[in-house]
Design brief:
The protein has 456 residues and is an alpha/beta fold. The protein has 15 helices and 18 strands. It has a six-stranded parallel β-sheet with strand order 2-1-3-4-5-6, sandwiched between helices. Strands 14-15-16-18-17 form a five-stranded mixed β-barrel. Strand 17 (437-446) and strand 18 (449-454) form a beta hairpin. The longest helix is centred in the last third of the chain and has 26 residues, at 367-392. The radius of gyration is 23 Å and the shape is globular. The relative contact order is 0.08. Keywords: 4Fe-4S, Cytoplasm, Iron, Iron-sulfur, Metal-binding, S-adenosyl-L-methionine, Transferase, tRNA processing. It comes from Aminipila butyrica. Its cofactor is [4Fe-4S] cluster.
């Protein structure tokens, strides 16, 4: 129960804990802005607060466990706090979340814009009781506008959410049940937010969503231009003034194909880097995953990108240990890492998720085999990245300067093709160059990326 002093006080201290993807990170920023705009104070997620909001992930069992651990931890910090759990874990398993001691509000993925209102209503109640506001995922049919974001923790790169939901239903994935059907954000709202962020000084805008490539594909989407899909947004951003670049957080090969990618290459602000999740290099496993493409179709997309720019950066996700994955299937994944020339591979061990088709499949892979394959994939990814870096030696790229590292005497940031770059320079020059797009010649491999020098 909340005491009378808390109930009458106007200003709340709010801690927001974010787990999971870039979309969750974006939505947490929106939640923070909504509370600040109402006069409340945002504090560190581990500090003493009146309200704790946990924006959860449910991609893996580990994500669920981390959410539960944080809930229990913060209720011990302030037993009288209002603990609100939202996000994908809350949407998919509301009863399980409600059983965690200390949870006051369980809010579905479409309730994030209402958290200020919901928490205020809960706070004003004379008797404290738990509330659950979770709708069936099939009823999540409207895009939830959380307002225009004007700031981010980073002062150089900003995320813009353009889309919600997914209808691909990959056999291992619970996200369609957590996020609901595809809903696209109004182009005018996206452009308005982009202009606001550019006015704040951001030099890189990252378009993100649950399945970004599905933008504008729903039948109810209002089509006012000849352009379709994500091109609508890229075209609009191309027309804005100022020095900035645009990056896509990811595109799904379950949606796009080589001709689609060719159309995107004409946009000059778009960075030559694409996160293209393959998940497996085995056609047998891709079919079992319901991924809707094969390895040859995936490589066709990669070849289009590399023909456009041999230094085009391609990052990916890969899962090891999917049910039925043999050693031969896994070797095909390792082979794909070399064929595609990835600059980064995110390796994941298959995690059984209740409610998905894969959970009921036979031939689940032993944990020790998954561990070994994961380590091999990580090593193969590191080797592929090294080869990619070597191919970029001597080339000139543009780096968005993000930080000056005094211990190394280097300015750091990412190139447009997503190479972490370290540029030796004086502290004065480094700090003067922060948040600037600078021309750099890449000279050698260094740390987790490359060394470079300012181009003449």
């Amino acid at each position: 129960m909340i005491n009378s002093e808390q109930r009458q006080a106007g200003k709340l201290r709010v801690g927001v804990k974010t787990l999971g993807c870039k979309v969750n990170q974006y939505e947490s920023e929106a939640i923070k802005e909504n509370f600040k705009n109402c006069g409340h104070e945002i504090v560190d997620e581990n500090d003493f607060a009146d309200v704790y909001i946990i924006n959860t992930c449910t991609v893996t069992n580990l994500a669920d466990r981390k959410s539960r651990q944080y809930i229990r931890k913060m209720k011990r910090v302030n037993p009288l706090s209002i603990v609100t759990v939202t996000g994908c874990y809350a949407q998919v398993s509301p009863e399980e979340v409600a059983e965690i001691e200390g949870v006051d509000i369980v809010a579905g993925t479409n309730q994030k814009s209402r958290l200020v209102e919901l928490i205020q209503e809960h706070r004003n109640q004379l008797e404290s009781h738990q509330e659950s506001l979770v709708e069936d995922y099939r009823h999540l049919t409207e895009y939830e506008e959380t307002g225009v974001i004007t700031s981010m923790e980073s002062r150089t790169r900003a995320y813009i959410k353009i889309q919600e939901g997914c209808d691909r239903f990959c056999s291992y994935c619970v996200i369609p049940y957590a996020r609901g059907p595809v809903r696209s954000r109004r182009a005018a709202d996206i452009v308005k937010e982009a202009q606001s962020l550019l006015e704040q000084g951001f030099k890189e805008l990252i378009l993100t969503g649950i399945n970004t490539a599905l933008y504008g594909t729903e039948t109810s989407f209002e089509q006012k231009e000849q352009l379709t899909g994500i091109e609508i947004i890229l075209h609009a951003l191309e027309e804005l003034g100022g020095e900035f670049r645009v990056r896509l957080s990811s595109l799904e090969p379950t949606v796009i194909h080589a001709d689609y990618v060719k159309r995107l290459l004409k946009y000059k602000r778009l960075c030559p880097h694409l996160h293209l999740s393959i998940q497996s290099g085995s056609d047998k496993i891709l079919q079992a995953m319901n991924r809707r493409y094969d390895r040859s179709e995936y490589l066709e997309i990669v070849n289009v990108l590399k023909e456009f720019d041999p230094g085009y950066g391609v990052t990916t996700d890969m899962i090891v240990g999917f049910p039925g994955e043999t050693e031969a299937d896994f070797r095909e994944s390792l082979e794909m890492v070399n064929q595609a020339g990835f600059c980064k591979v995110h390796a994941f061990k298959y995690s059984k998720r209740a409610g998905t088709k894969a959970a009921d499949m036979r031939e689940h892979v032993a944990p020790e085999v998954k561990n070994r394959r994961s380590q091999e994939l990580i090593e193969a990814g590191a080797q592929a990245a090294e080869q990619f870096f070597k191919k970029n030696i001597g080339g000139q790229r543009t780096v968005l300067a993000e930080e000056y590292l005094e211990e190394a005497g280097c300015l750091t940031g990412y190139t447009e093709n997503y190479i972490k770059t370290y540029i030796p320079c004086t502290k004065e020059l480094g700090e003067r160059s922060l948040n600037a797009l600078i021309a750099v010649e890449l000279t050698d491999l260094y740390r987790d990326g490359m060394a470079g020098r300012l181009a003449e």
